[in-house]
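Let us work through a complete example step by step.
Step 1: write down the sequence.
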Amino acid sequence: MKLIRLALILGAALALTSCSNKYKNDTKLAMENGIPVAERYGQLQIIGTDLCNKDGQPVQLRGMSSHGLQWYGKYANEKVIGWLRDDWNCQIWRAAMYLSEGGYLGSRAIKTKVVSSVEAAIKLGVYVIIDWHVLGTKDPMIHLEQAKEFFDEMSRKYGSYPNVLYEICNEPNSDKVTWKDNIKPYAEEVIKVIRANDPDNIIIVGTPNWSSEPQIAAEDPIDGKNIMYTIHFYAGTHGKEQRNKVAKALKLGAPVFCTEWGTTMASGDGGVFEKSTMEWMKFFEKNNISWTNWAVNNKGEDSGILAYNKDRNGQGGWTEEDLSPDGKLLRKILRKEN
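Step 2: predict the structure and record it as tokens.
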């Protein structure tokens, strides 16, 4: 394990000398000269702590997450994802497939919304995260066999497409769910299944306490290539202390991806915290950390990008009045207008 950690740290040091001067070359555009992002960047790879394109140049992917597909799957379609690409400058879409609360464990039919997300992303030339949304179930080990079955199917079907990233456990949580005893052994089993079908695409692993502890994973990393670790935050609740954890993980050589964050309190409400949000955005840009924001919905909560009851049919084409304060800020950030 010490050798694995040493290799990660040495890789990070090499990346700093070989890649840091290339950060400025990343345009962060979903479309450039008529070519979509996934066609330009191609097969993603990890070099040190950087997410890089097929040529080894660091890239920062920025985009949106769905809300729970069992509730807001109507937005997981080509029209909406295409609108996010063309009007919002989204390079990546996250398909959040809950396990509980009416999700996959209750009905496998929800998987069709993941499929529609992936196929739309491939057609549109953007990246897509397939998210096994562990939350209410707390411990990913509880449904290990179902996860292996699901990711075996997804990686067999889509593993040849560079557009696809796998997020294998959204937010493990509970004092009893630890990295050593629960999350890491779960991840190793699921990664083995994915890698049998897909040797290259990025795999993102959740971290303890609602994916708030990437430094713990960095101290005991998983052996393998193209593996990243999650950080989640909500700007009204989490600040410098959380960023310090990310900085420590990076220093230890662990690549980090923020697959979920919000401009609000962790509850999803409490208003929009613009100043704290922009502090996080500057930190992510400085450290080349990719992200997807929570979330595309019209339920009326402050962390949803649509105003209450707008776009009830999932058509995209939103006007300014269709957007919540959160949505207006996110659109500006993604379009680099803020």
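Step 3: interpret the result. The chain has twelve helices and twelve strands.
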